[in-house]
Amino acid sequence: MIHDTKCEIITVGTELLLGQIVDTNSAWLSERLASAGINVYFKQTVGDNEHRLFSVFEKAQSRSNIIFVTGGLGPTDDDLTKDVAAKLFQTNLMTHSSTMDKIETFFKKRNLQMTENNRKQALGFEGGKVFKNEVGMAPGLFFEHDGTWWFFVPGVPKEMKYLMNEQIMPYLKEQGVLTEQLYNRVLSFQGIGESTLETELHGLIRQQTNPTIAPLAKDGYVTLRLTAKAKTIKEANQLLDPTEEKIMNRVGSHFIGYGPVSLEEQLKILLEEHNLTLSSCESVTGGLFSSTMVSLEGASSFFNGSIVSYSNDAKEQVVGVSKEVITQHGAVSEPCAKQMAHLTRDKLQSDLSISFTGVAGDEVVDGHSPGTVFIGISANDHAEVDYVQIKGDRQTIREEAATEGIKRLIKFIKNFIA
């Protein structure tokens, strides 16, 4: 019986090393195992090479007591996982009859000729266990070698996830391995840096055991992930609640919510905190910024409105941008962005206004290449225009420009108003 788990994940396939396929399996496995209370200590990726594969397996055997291997269970010559593992285990491979029947039936039903190498997928370890794969050909396999538990699953993500969720995790629970799980609670903070937050909580972090406290900087805010190992959610909350209370007593004034906080939510929090109203004037973004803002609950309390001035005529006749600015500098320019922001703030009677003008198409406009964007911000006492260069297609440029605008508003409020 394994109590103190030291888990390792091995992904097999030369295509992973070449970057032809992104290894999502190990990330998914890590998260799935961690949530079940299994400690993942190591990850390795190895190509389809017998010598290197054996070396990786041998190393894993020496330092881990639960090992998950994905990939290399298929019918082709470069699928070496089972052969190499059998060599390490000093056991034989034998045909699993029900899996073989399934493979043969698959080909018969489709009137297809089954090649001999397909029989390879029905091989399992003599003295091991086979987990039925209901969504693919190759089954999952288990073998215990010198006290270490080895699990083998196909590299196809759909098949791997099915076997883990429906077969292997229930098996581990039956064997008494999954007696505790990890329960997470994420606290988000704004207006305090990661280093400052860690300093404020230094004593708590240094003394952590169960639950643990992990600070992490996000895009514009900081999170603390509290993780408790417990048998039930009730028991976990009994561990997490006192820790959260201690944290709130020290840095609670910066708390903005549980879990991830989007950029637009962060902006909303700042606007409401300082009792500010916002408006926008959009050209290149075509209303994407205002659409994002009005999707927030209670937007009418802080967002006054937007002017979409896509054409030069609209900039002049609706917003009021001077003809001289358009003629001398062009619509895609710093002076134009500045006037758009200033004039819109006055027209819509807001405390702040942001403007967007740029090039999303394929052609040069006013001497500026595609992806050029000017973002203006106007307030009573401060104003600025930022130049950004964005790579991508038309939609990407528009979306990234709106996101950059939100980031700059957050920074502007913190620097000049907060």
Walkthrough of the structure:
It comes from Aquisalibacillus elongatus. Residues 8-175 form the MoaB/Mog domain. Belongs to the CinA family. InterPro entries: CinA, CinA-like_C, CinA_C, CinA_KH, Competence-induced_CinA, MoaB/Mog-like_dom_sf, MoaB/Mog_dom. This is Putative competence-damage inducible protein. The protein has 418 residues and is of the alpha/beta class. It folds into three domains: 7-174, 3-Layer(aba) Sandwich (Molybdenum Cofactor Biosythetic Enzyme, Chain A), CATH 3.40.980.10; 181-258, Alpha-Beta Plaits (2-Layer Sandwich); 263-417, CinA-like (Maf protein, Alpha-Beta Complex). It contains 15 helices and 17 strands. The chain has helices spanning 14-17, 25-35, 50-63, 81-89, 97-109, 157-174, 194-200, 202-206, 233-251, 263-273, 288-294, 312-319, 323-329, 334-347, 394-417; strands spanning 7-12, 40-46, 66-70, 93-95, 123-125, 129-131, 140-145, 148-153, 181-189, 212-217, 222-230, 255-258, 278-282, 303-308, 352-358, 372-378, 383-389. A six-stranded mixed sheet has the order 2-1-3-8-7-6, with helices on both faces. A five-stranded mixed sheet has the order 14-13-15-16-17, sandwiched between helices. Helix 10 packs parallel to helix 15. The longest helix has 24 residues, at 394-417. It starts with 6 loop residues before the first strand and ends with a helix. The mean pLDDT is 92.
Going by helix content, strand content and strand pairing, the class is alpha/beta
Reported for the largest beta sheet, the result is: 6 strands, mixed
Q: So how many helices?
A: 15
Uncertain stretches = none
The CATH superfamily title of the largest domain: MoaB/Mog-like domain
In CATH, the architecture of the largest domain is 3-Layer(aba) Sandwich
Number of domains: 3
State the share of residues found in helices, binned by percent.
40-55%
Distance between the termini: 57 Å
Shape: elongated
- Integer-rounded radius of gyration: 29 Å
| Global mean pLDDT | 92
What's the total number of strands?
17
Say what the CATH topology of the largest domain is: Molybdenum Cofactor Biosythetic Enzyme, Chain A
Strand arrangement within the widest β-sheet reads 2-1-3-8-7-6
- What is the class of the largest domain in the CATH system? Alpha Beta
Tell me what portion of residues adopts beta-strand conformation. 15-25%
Pfam families: CinA (PF02464), CinA_KH (PF18146), MoCF_biosynth (PF00994)
InterPro entries: CinA (IPR050101), CinA-like_C (IPR036653), CinA_C (IPR008136), CinA_KH (IPR041424), Competence-induced_CinA (IPR008135), MoaB/Mog-like_dom_sf (IPR036425), MoaB/Mog_dom (IPR001453)
Protein name: Putative competence-damage inducible protein
Domain MoaB/Mog: 8-175
